[in-house]
């Protein structure tokens, strides 16, 4: 295992720390993360139901995800507070649940993938909250980064 | 579809609302939720590595999960602020990642499963943050309620 | 000026304090507050526009108002943290803007009107944020309590 | 209605989003917003009362307004977190209430008027909280931008 | 060392947890904590200076302390969120600095001394912030509980 | 007393304000602050106890300190929100307690010593919370800046 295979957030004695990024150059960075609400056909019918008022159910999750992205440094202990410059949360109702995709951008010294992952997780939890009276077994699945670009490490695409 | 098959968090016109629970009786309630960090054997070795200082990596996730439980009403738009009376977050390193289990308790008017789910999700995201330099593909899987008890609906065990 | 004509949140020396309510009995309390986004006919047309996708504009304000109610003790220095047990935010698009009405409930030792007022103000500011590119002069007007009930002082209706 | 007459915070399908400002240049920006606490002569007398200790009543509102400006991205869902570089909140007791003026500055990619408006609203709500035992009908009126400058759109003065 | 000599916030394996207090009875509890800003004669003169406008310097610290008490569960990882029912922060300018005393009350399942200590610490840090341009060596000293009462353990007075 | 001997956070009328730093140049800045948990030999033995699981006790304080640094602008009313680019919190168990040292870095327009002091204070309070069942008289002592550098005023070392 090489030197690059280290947990960067703990020092050589194992103590947690917020890594010093002062010397890094601010650059435009972008991350895309995704996840999925897994639920029943009943819930899918309720969410899909062509009637317009249902809009709030998805809107609530979308807004929770966007706001969640902004709370990332409050939630993830060793994350740097960064200047999030854009967030979108896309929700697509499928036959087995809701596909959640979040895209985040920044012009800062460190990557924005934790913000995208947090947006996905919070949107997913908000969907669970809204459907749990109908489906108490609803779950949030596969919260993961799909793509990131910008910064020293450059582009990464999920294999 | 029966009356019980409704999304309780939107009213008949589809507008989001925080459901009125004033008339409910405070009772002891408990919820258990779980999830999993899926990662590589390399990361598992780093987390497992018998050397004690590594403790902080898991401790950071445990504490983030506990603190995350307390932030639930700030994150999930329609959740009631409740008096969380106990939280534990258990982490077990396995061959393919980390199993995350959170138990939350309250003595309030509404259930505490969103707090347990939020603890799991935040602990999972914190683990991703700590290992992402080694495994950028690490993901949080299967965030779900295992068990809940207390309140009018009584006990529910994941089928 | 009688004894009841005092600013309760400052003591006899003028120092700010959070008033001690330990001895008060928890009771069901309810408050209704209102306010108005004043904007142009152009914006009204955009908000009203029958096309369904526009739903998010109002949904965003509704959710911001509900979440804002929960943040009241973080924002208003001398407010007690209370167990908000229900919040609704109603938005009605009129010819001159949007009428905002918030209803909050609690079962606690002190009133819930500041939570209702905060919900109205935050919903109003969110609407301003969404329309300001079209109408930079949009304003939030007449944020006020309409009605409150519960607690020792009983019912109050705006004259 | 031209293309510039769009609600920028919802996309073409109506979904809420945080607009991407990564490509904008950081510049010094300044905004001034105002509002008014409308209350009774009794309250005005209490606030004006030459006796010095009363200072805390106005100081509490001033500080709440300044702190509120910093909470703007937590409250307004689609607001970007920006680096607020200065805030003042001025309060002037008049015969019919308190005139509230907030000035905010930033050196960032987007305007600072929502921060100024939030400072005014929170200061106003704090004043309501402090006087509501004497005047339960106190209201916050006319929360609006007076002036903004900096950025691509340049100066705007309330007509 | 007896069983009562344990760190209650870590379990038998050493893992941090929020202790379960569900079974405890809510009772009125009160705590008094104190601390001291240690600074120079120059700063004392500025704070004391009979001229009234200086009021804001102390008012800012008083309000920060009160608001800080409410943020305790957000700051101290294993603290329970409790219903704070009253907070006062007293500041007394002495020849060598400012004596800070905070009194907190609750009617809940667990003690309120962490809230009193947090109020003192935040008030002290706020004073440091205000005087640091004049005295960069200003410090916060002796943040400690003086007295607590209520709950199963009853009264405790600092020896 | 010269002009430089002013409380910068209040204006000439004594009103609190967030000082305008828009015109300052972002530079790398660094601060080191320290403090001490004073406690009994019993507690020291519990914290020191070679057995590894105890790790969480110190890890909890370390993480609370790091997260506390990020909450500084939420706690200290007149502090600017700044881009914290690195935080470490070091804890050293001594015969009479725990020495706490925090180092913070930023690349912004204003200093980072309040963030370092807040990290120390929050880590100290967290330690008090963890040991208070064993030592209710535990205190946080001597929270002070040791060193700062960067910015117009350059280096300052505690005399």
From TrEMBL, chains A, B, C, D, E, F:
It is an enzyme of class 4 (lyase). InterPro entries: MoaC, MoaC_bact/euk, MoaC_sf, MoCo_biosynth_MoaA/MoaC, Mopterin_CF_biosynth-C_dom. The keyword Lyase applies. GO terms for molecular function: cyclic pyranopterin monophosphate synthase activity. Keywords: Lyase, Molybdenum cofactor biosynthesis. Transmembrane segments: none annotated. It catalyses: (8S)-3',8-cyclo-7,8-dihydroguanosine 5'-triphosphate = cyclic pyranopterin phosphate + diphosphate. It comes from the Bacteria. Substrate binds at residues 78-80, 114-115. Homohexamer; trimer of dimers. This is Cyclic pyranopterin monophosphate synthase. The gene is moaC.
């Amino acid at each position: 295992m090489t030197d690059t295979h280290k947990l960067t957030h703990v020092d050589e004695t194992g103590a947690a720390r917020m890594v010093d990024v002062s010397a890094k150059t601010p650059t435009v960075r972008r991350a895309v993360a995704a996840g999925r609400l897994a639920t029943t056909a009943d819930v899918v019918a309720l969410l899909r139901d062509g009637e317009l008022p249902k809009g709030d159910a998805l809107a609530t999750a979308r807004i929770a995800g966007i706001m969640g992205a902004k709370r990332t440094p409050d939630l993830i202990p060793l994350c740097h507070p960064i200047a999030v410059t854009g967030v979108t949360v896309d929700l697509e109702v499928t036959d087995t649940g809701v596909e959640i995709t979040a895209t985040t951008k920044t012009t800062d010294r460190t990557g924005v993938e934790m913000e995208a992952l947090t947006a996905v997780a919070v949107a997913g939890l908000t969907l669970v909250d809204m459907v749990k009276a109908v489906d108490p077994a609803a779950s949030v699945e596969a919260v993961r980064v799909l793509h990131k670009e910008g910064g020293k490490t450059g582009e990464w695409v999920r294999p």
